[in-house]
Amino acid sequence: MKAKFLGTASLALIATLTANNALAQTAPAPAEESFQLEEIVVSAQRRLQNLQEVPLAVSSLGAADLEDKQIRSTIDLIREIPNLVGNNNVGLGSSNTYYIRGIGNTESIATQDVPVGTYVDDVYISRQNANNFGLFDVERIEVMRGPQGTLFGRNTTGGAINVIMKKPSTKPGGYLEAGAGRFGAIDVRTSIDAPLAEKVLTKISAYRSTSDGYVTQRSTGNKFNGTDAYGLRGAVRLLPNDDLTIDLSGDYVDQEASNLINYVDPVTGKRVSSLGITQGALANYFTGSKARNKPGNETKNWSLASNIAWEVGGVTVNSITGYRDTTQRYFIDSNPAAPNPIPTGVSPITNYSRHKQFSQELKVNGLAFDDKLNYTAGLYYLHENNDTDLGTGVGTATGFTVSGDRTISNDLDSYAAYLQGDYKVTDALTATVGVRLSREVKDLEVESNPGARGPVFSTDLIEASGIPTELKNSFVTPRFALSYQVDDDVMLYASVTRGEKSGGWNGRALSNNLFFAFSPEKVWSEEVGIRTDLFDRTLRLNATAFYSEAKDVQISAAYTTAQGARIFTTTNPAGMRNYGGELEMLWRPIKGLSINGSVGLQHARYIDISDDVQVQLANCQAALASANATGIAANCNRGFVDFKGRIARPVRAPDFSSILSATYDLETDTGIFRPTVGFTYNNGYAIGNAGNTDSTDGAWTDHQMLWNASLAFEPAAYPDLTLSVGCKNCTDQNYKVSFLSATSIFLNEPMTWDVRARYRF
């Protein structure tokens, strides 16, 4: 099937190229006033390149795109990138779960890593619990689809999101923006460039964002799922001489952002929650400060980073250093007890955690062999230290049982060396070969908190159960590619890439013998693509076809313990095959009008099913045939066996998705009006592991269509002022986006609107 698919894709690309050349030959002559598309510069291969010359699937959004399309946090990217599906993790508004081409996960606990890596200025962000960044003063965002195992090496089996911040300017200036909107939203942002000298440039940026929340807690009248966040960032650029650039930055962000379960009141149409959780209700049951956490979620993180670039002898050497310290508190419940709310919650989780990471990278870019070879090489080190004070229990109307009050500590040391070279075989043909060598060591410690109720946890008891508390892994992730520049406006490429994501532990275990270790997840991906600029560079069409196979995917499934017990936990129960493609378009048919569009196709299915799951599947089918209710409950609609005794569909991998938006600059005597309209659509996907197209319990979400719109106005009398009004989910559609059980289904955000004023100085 793979050969047939790639052969068909290659023929389709050749046909497209032939048609495009014919169109280009018959295109009308350009108008006197050119409105050609600008060159987009990206760093997807760890050096600056024209997007149209990069042999991999990458999308880039610049500062103007972020403003026009109302992209104010990283979760908004799901509206703009083909084959990217995402949402907030259940309960946690600060945490995003991303799936690219079917690869991703929803776990924010530190014993499991994420397969879609997030980077800020090339510094990897290890934890998923605070990756929903409030964006301010961003230069561009690049999203790379598919494994990036060589240059963005750590865990990026699904893809990578790289946020590039604006650097301090040589000229003084800045902006001030203020907005207000639905649910009492207030948002203020500012950035100031203040060069202290010709060779000492500085920038300071800040934001403050609040909202009352769009959910009313029925038992108390309190508001849930609001925002209370602020952030401050400072940057310094030092230019001691023409060969040396030193970029220093630091930031602090405090963010209260929740995603507590809610539903639409059938009478009023408003969002309400039947959760009963209240602050202090757990104080008599758990130890430590987590016992008095407020319902909701709060993260505080600060970071320091430096990038020292030294050009010597035609070679650029970068020393990239990053440190990040994140604390998180939350008190959530995912199991409402309507109509009788329980203040402790039915299945509450209360958490206080601290996550520290330090990374150091040495990167070299240069040319060799008469500039035919462009190479990138580097060394990388990352250290992580995570401490999670976690409390879980079961609440009823008559009492509360503690199921766990423990601290989980896990550390990581990761080492890597990488090298990639692009060699010009001819002026048109370039061969790329890259490889990354990685070595990782992880360790785990678990102890009951002093004075804790409930089960006793200890590292010794975990080891006595035969579970390793140290994991070591060495692996190689290569990349091979060929690109062919047909002419200045058409490029073809083919590539093969491998990615690997680290193993870990089932950190939410409720007994020592359930802290199972799982193996690394591995992905091979093959791509063919075409990059074109047509009609005097007023139309950009980029197409990519891919085929990938993942081995040992890390998902929850049936597992037989050494004692013969069958449980459901995170293991490596299957592989996954996915194939499809993306088509992206940017078109300027007339002056002032820009049309963006994309289509994503994929066909994701589980393969190489484990023996444990095969046994579960057979037992489920037998129970269904005999109407054995006990057997059905034990084996069906669990793990990734669905309620009809079939292997379920991989989660968050819609077969078809599309994005379309348009922005028009209308110049008048009074000023410039800039309307932007966009919509996103997909044909539905599984939101629970056991979801299938005919799921009756809510583990499948049907097709989704969301509209967004904005109108900006720049008055001619005040050219530095922009006034705007906008809405997201403008038609107020409600869709299921996450699933834990038939009574624990999470919805997307309702319609929001705001008005804004932005002044540049």
Reconstruct the topology from this structure.
Blueprint: H1 2-26, E1 41-42, E2 49-50, E3 58-62, H2 63-68, E4 84-89, E5 91-100, E6 103-104, E7 116-120, E8 123-125, E9 138-145, E10 159-165, E11 173-181, E12 185-193, E13 200-211, E14 215-217, E15 223-224, E16 227-241, E17 244-259, E18 263-264, E19 271-273, E20 296-312, E21 315-333, E22 348-368, E23 373-395, E24 400-424, E25 429-448, H3 459-464, E26 470-487, E27 490-501, E28 504-505, E29 517-518, E30 521-534, E31 539-560, E32 566-587, E33 593-607, H4 611-626, H5 629-635, E34 656-664, E35 666-667, E36 671-682, E37 685-686, E38 700-701, E39 704-715, E40 721-728, E41 736-741, E42 744-747, E43 752-760
Parallel strand pairs: 7-10, 14-19
Antiparallel strand pairs: 1-2, 3-9, 4-5, 5-6, 5-17, 7-8, 9-10, 11-12, 11-43, 12-13, 13-16, 14-15, 16-17, 17-20, 18-19, 20-21, 21-22, 22-23, 23-24, 24-25, 25-26, 26-27, 27-30, 28-29, 30-31, 31-32, 32-33, 33-34, 34-36, 35-36, 36-39, 37-38, 39-40, 40-43, 41-42
Helix pairs in contact: 4-5
Helix share bin: under 10%
Distance between the termini: 58 Å
Structural class: mainly beta
CATH class: Mainly Beta
Number of domains: 1
Q: What do the pLDDT scores average to? A: 92
Query: CATH homologous superfamily, by name?
Result: TonB-dependent receptor, beta-barrel domain
SS field, number of helical segments? 5
How much strand content do the residues show?
A: over 45%
Task: Tell me how many strands there are.
Answer: 43
In the CATH hierarchy, what is the architecture at level 2?
Beta Barrel
